[in-house]
Amino acid sequence: MSDHERRSSKPGRESKVAQLIRKYELEPLGEELEHLWTREADRWSLRALADRFNRELLRTAMREAGMADLDGEAANYYRLLTDDDVTPGDRVEAVRWLERAGVDVERLREEFVSYQAVRTYLKTYRNAEYERSEEDRVGREAESIRRFAARTEAIVQDKITRLHRQGYLEIGSPTVTVQVQVYCSECDSQYSVDRLLDTGQCACTTTQ
């Protein structure tokens, strides 16, 4: 069922997410949000879905202003506008860049949605259900760890790129990667987070 058909069959006020999807013709994004929230493996949290939706709003605003989304610039601008770890100076600079390019940042911020708005859209507007079990605990924690690693990677990438562009670093094309490792001092073993969570135990515990 399309979002138009869902909207026509539901009386009352239209959800904010549904309004924005209709306004910017983002119907495929609504289906994507539902899929990411309800699929069996690697389900996305509501907060991650809200970030996904808001990044697409920013990308759309940039396209309307004639800006090109090169090398994930929309994702980086979204981080600069919303991340708690961003300095006030960096945030102001990002706002100025966007406004000079023709993006209405104030309107954009007002249109950004919360995870509660995404939940309302999925449950009330799309009739989606997200059933959790105790077995999902490891998966949720793994997702949280990946988000922290990705955020660290994005922050370091931004800093390195800035230093490179300003001539403080001499390097061809810097790319930052963050890999989280878990070390066991009992048996001197080391694992990636994904491997440890998949196996559920260290080598030294299998011999006990």
UniProtKB/TrEMBL annotation:
InterPro entries, per database record: RdfA (IPR048925)
Protein name, entry field: Rod-determining factor RdfA
Organism from which the protein derives: Halorubrum trueperi
Gene behind the chain: rdfA
